[in-house]
Write the structure tokens for this entry.
Amino acid sequence: MRGQIPSDPNFISLINVETMIPATHPIRAIKRLCDEVLTTMSKTFDKIYSADGAPSIPPETLLKGKVLQALYTVRSDRQLCARLQTDLMFRWFVDVPLDEAVFDASTYSKNQSRLLQHEIADLFFTTVVELARHNDWVSDEHFSVDGTLIEAWASMKSFRPKDETKGPGAGNAWTDFKGEKRGNDTHESSTDSEAKLIRKGPGKEARLSFAGHATMENRHGLCVRFAVKPAVGAPESAVAVEQMSELRHLGFRPKTVGGDKGYHTAEFIEGMRDQKIVPHPALKTGQKTLRVLLTSAHALSQKIRKRIEEIFGWSKTTGGFRKSRYRGVERTHAQGQYVTATWNLVRMAKLLSEDPPQTARA
């Protein structure tokens, strides 16, 4: 029998959004973990917000919005606010009642300046990692490092000579670069001066980019450190040594670190050995002076360290972090912290649904 469309449908009803989201939906576990992290951060929020004045958008709502943007590939704050207006699950996740008006996109963006000023993105990421450590999902001893390029929010037309003076009306003029030699020493982007021109490898086109540096623990592939740096002037090997030192300050006890051939350098190997960490880089041919013991542990590190590409892959596709939404290293770094923290929450939610792991050596 053919179903009939009501001639006068009624869209006014008393509903419970909780009953509309399946009990087994992964978003429930992610929300539960996210709420636990934000509860831990509550005292910090009390310190950075005044007790007087008009109430702002709750910082918990701002941070949950960032998680939703990474989870559902929401490309902008404006699109997020539009989704909050119509998507019941989005409202449920950020705890905005159905009868409450959704805040304006400009207000949402403006309220994030306080979070940026107090480095809340770094604290959020670190608190997520601490929650994973509390649940014994993180190795304290064995890690992998790698780097990637994040495209900057700047066009190649903006990469102009540093000594160039612009006349009136020269904002977005047509530019022909044919035959012109351009480099970071003589040119810079007029849109984002911190973006650097760099190519990923031989035969690849050069792009204005930032560098993303990640450290992964080897037990479950969670990201324990992430930083965005200028693409020029911060070598991967130097950042890896820095991140291992940061892990020590956080209470980790690194014993081995795996990496690709880009880490088969004197700076990386000597830096790791100075911290009494065994370096496990992939070996370059012809580097006889940089000796690395080819043990079974080295082979295992080389096998596991490739999983770090999953972090970059998810961040650049689902997380929308292939290209920065912002100008400058600081704001791009904050975006990277939110995206990689969300990756961790997704992995942790999956671990919650699995059987408890057998006790094993990290």
The chain is about 40% helix and 15% strand. The chain has a mean pLDDT of 90. Strands lie at 142-151, 159-161, 187-189, 196-199, 206-217, 223-230, 256-259, 278-281.
